[in-house]
What we know:
The protein is 3% helix and 43% strand. The chain is mainly β and 214 residues long. The strands form 4 sheets. It has an 8-stranded mixed β-barrel with strand order 6-7-9-10-13-14-12-11. It has a two-stranded antiparallel ribbon with strand order 1-2. β13 and β14 (195-206) form a beta hairpin. The two termini are 28 Å apart. Residues 2-55 have low confidence and may be disordered.
Amino acid sequence: MQLKIIVRWALGVGVIAGVVFFSLSPFFLVPRLSAQGSYVAKSVVVDIKPSNSLKEQISPGLPVRLKIPTINLNVELEHVGITLRGALDVPKGRANAGWFKFGPRPGEEGVAIIDGHFGFWKNDVPAVFNNLNKLRKGDVLSVEDQKGKVVNFVVREVRRYDPKADTSEVFVSNDEKAHLTLITCDGVWNKFLKTYSKRLVVFTDREGEISPAL
């Protein structure tokens, strides 16, 4: 099951500018990447400058694994990008989760996003995020990078949204802290619209950087 979420975002300060759910689109829509290597968001162009060596040394590495002990989840992370339709892609396999590689890395300032499938494969094999709805405030999850470094996050809130709900403000972060948001579908499958009735979003903060509920 592919997700039905639209994303408008601007990179540069490591902040997702906004997220809007849409009932029919199966992707996260993002601004196009210009030929000059800048991200175009509405009329604003944000140039992406190379990181200096010191920043590279202290920044989190590329995420490779997500662990959520509460729901016995330990999965590889695919690095998902943008489809030909200008949308955020989803993991190729239902057994993996997908980190949005054009957003912040988990542990960096801003809102990192990991998405995953919901539902069942053939032979009733569950998708990776089928038990995400069991998470509760205070649960701890972790992301491991390719350097072996682990960053822990604490669940702040779990919310369900109507597919048509406007969530423009939900993914904005201006507090200079690191956040990780997990996204999947939830609810009842509508075979006519080929979508689920709800969207499930888990908001987490880097351990030691707890933010107030939005």
